[in-house]
Structure formats: structure tokens, C-alpha cells
Amino acid sequence: MASQDWIDKDFYAILGVSRDASEEDVKKAYRKLARKHHPDKNPGDEAAEQKFKDVAEAHSVLADKEQREQYDAVRAMGSGARFSGGPGPGGGGGFEDLFGNLFNGGSGGSRGGFGRGGAGAGGPDLSDLFGGAGGFGGSGRFGGGAPAKGADRTARTTISFGGAIRGTTVGLREPDGGVIDVRIPAGIRTGQKVRVKGKGQRGSGGAGDLLVEVAVSGHKFFEREGDDIRIHLPVAFDEAALGTTVAVPTVHGEKVNIKIPAGVTSGRVLRLKGHGVRRKEKGREVAGDMLVTVEVQVPKDLSDEAVQAVKAYAEATKGIDPRKGLEAKAVL
Hints:
This protein is an alpha+beta fold.
């Protein structure tokens, strides 16, 4: 039961923040813990994986103003609740009934997400108040007399850069402990959503869907720009002056040769067609490019022999002025 799940979990303690923590404090705590316990950094460590899931669940609730208010209300009222007593065999009037009567005035309104649609005569329909535990929220669907399909739910997840490039599968934990496997397609970007059919709220006309918003972690070498991938390639001075061919790694685990033209300068961008992000769009393959930004490296520590060689080079090229025409360009 979602209500029980929220009562039993202290999301503030999981993130290590105070109950009056700002949205920015919650975000910072989440990012720090998510990086620390991410499965990619702790392969095979079940404890770290569980901690990562707990942190993600806590963040999904506390980072959402609406869900955080509901969570605080549930925790506050649940501290004095009891799970026994009430009408029915065995005292079956449980915690869910207590909140259903409190918010719905005992009326049987249509089931839907809170704050998303109409209400019955008894006030706003909050009967699915607890449907958002663990990062899940609702958005109502209402039919006009036909059996109503259940509400959609929403969730958030963070995946690694490599997972976004290759595609991956993540497990989202339900409030009742169950896990929903969500297949993330290759090439997904931060902010995009994946729809999982039939994993929303149940309704008389069938179950709604689960919409999972994805965030992608950054990478220390590769930079994504749309479907293109940019890298910064260090090139030695002699390679830049004479030209060469260099093998560079791609996001797909390959090494591709790229020709460095003689006389190349720092900042020049070379393009490798089709070696960027690869994804499917409307049934066809789409591939970005790899953008290679050249960075000419000047060595700091030279041997005596290298110093003499540079001096000889300077003597041989003393007629070449790299700043020729600079003053003319500077005229206002």
C-alpha cells in the first residue's frame, strides 16, 4: 500500500537533508549520492544498487513540490494512525479508508490523479493520493460514460552516458516492492520520456500507462550535441605542422582513423560522418557525426636536443610572420 510505504520511509534521512531543505539542497544531495552509488560505478554491489534506488525514489518525491507536500501530510497524519479497528470483519477500516473518508467526504468519486481533473460533489478527488509514492504520480483519464481507463503514472530515472548511447534497461521499484523493468532505447536524451504500456493505475476500462522521464549523466571525454558527439583531440606540434593520421575512440567502442592535415591549427573541427549517436526514428536509422576539435599541444619541458631543434626551426622559418596583417585587422 502506497500510504504505508510513505509512512515507513524517511526520504529526508535517505538524502541526508533537513525537512526544510530547499529544492537546490535536495538536488545537490541527490546528485552526490547518485554518483556515489550508481550501478556503473559499483558493478555487482547489490547494496549500492539498492541505495541508488532508494536515493532516486526519495529525490523523485522531494523534488516535486506537489508530491513533497502530500508526503509531508501523510507522514504528519500517519504518525498517529493505527491499522486496526473500524467497521468490517477483523476491524478492516485501515489507513487508506481513513484518508479516503477525510478527503472525499465518503463519496464515491471517479478515480483519477490528484490535482489533474474534475471532482465529485464532495470536493476534490484525492482517492489516489498515495499513487505517487516512489516517484510515481497520476494524471487522470476520464471517459464520458464508457468504462474509464486508469490514470497514467509518471516516474523519473537517471542513466549513464553509455546507457543512453547503447540503450539499457532500468528497474523502477513500486511502492509495494515490485519492480517494473523499463527498456530505454539507444540514443535517448535528457528530458525525453519512455512510455510503458499498461503500468499505470487500474481502471474499469483497463490500466493506464507509465511515463518515465530520463536524465542522462555526463561523460568525462565525450560531449553530446544533439545527435553529434564532440571530442577534443590533443595533437603534437610536429603532427600539426607535418600532418598525420590518428586513431580516435568513438562512443560505440570502435577506433577510427582520422587524417590530420598539415598546418592544422588549434580549434579546427574535423568531422567523422556517422560516428555520432545512432538511434531509430520512425522505423529508420538516424546517425549523427563525430566532431573532432584539434588542440595543438606545446610541450613545457624540452631536452637540450629538442631546444636546439626548435631554434633551428625558428631560424629556418624566420621569414614567416604569423601576425602579418594583425594591425590592419585591429583598425576600428
